[in-house]
């Protein structure tokens, strides 16, 4: 049975499912989740922002939850240009004027990509993990062994054995990632189960596997998106007002991202929060405060 709280809107590529919080005439915010999470990562953040007068849109990203591709023939791409464009198309479909974007993990990458490519369409940005635009050429180079161990799942996904593992054991695999990436977060079974339903999307495995193979330069992207990827490869600076956030206990971001400051040439602050990778769910007040800080700059 469909969840009556979930709305949807069609773009040229997707039927994007989303949750909406706050007044319909509120100042617009789009919050974008990552892998392997879902819209519920932002439940508490959205509630705080709605109380402050925001209209908060929280979409299921491609490959998650009720979001679906319009065409069976469409490439199940997980690359950054696709996910960044999805946010812009969502804003257009909902007629949101210069929304503030906020995201983490895949969502941070998508929001950074959208802000870098379409600054005239974006009011401001909250980005977990700094300037989160993927440099595929750099990904071809090895990291220190200690970090390669942390991203074991990315190596697994390069093989068909890894695809089969994700398909057959998606909940077990994703729960391990929740535990490893946010070591201080004591979530319960119900919290995980509520989000894990989103992994049953029929495109989940294809989109996830393509994302990580594309990141390693081992899978081709969508040819129609190559001009956007070419622009992102030049590392365009972000000009919109931005707050970047690091979590102190995130093994995916050792040392943090304070050195990314040069990539933000508009108003910019960098916050450090005592949390792991899933910061919106662990420290929702801190994430919401970052959005409110951007809103203050725009007022």
Automatic annotation (TrEMBL):
Query: By what name is this protein known?
Result: Pimeloyl-ACP methyl ester carboxylesterase
For this record, the Gene Ontology CC terms, alphabetical, are: membrane
Give the top-rank taxon of the lineage listed in the UniProt record for this protein: Bacteria
Q: List the lineage, top down.
A: Bacteria, Pseudomonadati, Pseudomonadota, Alphaproteobacteria, Hyphomicrobiales
Q: Which Pfam families does this entry report, sorted A to Z?
A: Abhydrolase_1
The terms under GO molecular function for this entry are: catalytic activity
Q: Can you give the residue ranges of the AB hydrolase-1 domain?
A: 28-278
């Amino acid at each position: 049975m469909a969840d009556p709280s979930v709305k949807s809107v069609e773009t040229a590529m997707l039927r994007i499912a989303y949750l909406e919080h706050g007044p319909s005439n509120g100042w617009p915010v789009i919050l974008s989740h990552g892998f392997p999470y879902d819209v519920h990562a932002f439940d508490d953040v959205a509630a705080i922002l709605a109380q402050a007068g925001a209209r908060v849109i929280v979409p299921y990203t491609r490959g998650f939850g009720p979001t679906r591709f319009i065409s069976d023939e469409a490439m199940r791409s997980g690359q950054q240009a696709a996910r960044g464009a999805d946010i812009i198309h969502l804003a257009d479909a909902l007629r949101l004027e210069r929304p503030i974007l906020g995201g983490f993990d895949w969502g941070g990458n998508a929001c950074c990509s959208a802000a870098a490519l379409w600054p005239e369409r974006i009011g401001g940005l909250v980005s977990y993990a700094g300037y989160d635009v993927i440099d595929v050429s750099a990904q071809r180079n090895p990291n220190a062994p200690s970090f390669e161990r942390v991203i074991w799942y990315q190596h697994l996904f390069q093989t068909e054995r890894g695809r089969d593992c994700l398909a057959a054991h998606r909940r077990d695999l994703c729960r391990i990632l929740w535990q490893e990436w946010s070591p201080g977060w004591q979530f319960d079974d119900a919290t995980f189960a509520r989000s894990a339903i989103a992994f049953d999307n029929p495109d989940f495995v294809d989109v996830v596997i393509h994302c990580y193979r594309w990141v390693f330069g081992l899978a081709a992207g969508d040819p129609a998106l190559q001009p956007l990827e070419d622009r992102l490869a030049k590392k365009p600076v972000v000009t919109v007002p931005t707050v970047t956030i690091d979590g102190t206990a995130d093994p995916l971001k050792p040392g943090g991202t304070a050195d990314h400051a040069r990539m933000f040439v508009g108003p910019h602050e960098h916050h450090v929060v005592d949390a792991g990778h899933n910061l919106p769910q662990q420290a929702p007040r801190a994430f919401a405060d970052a959005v409110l800080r951007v809103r203050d700059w725009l007022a």
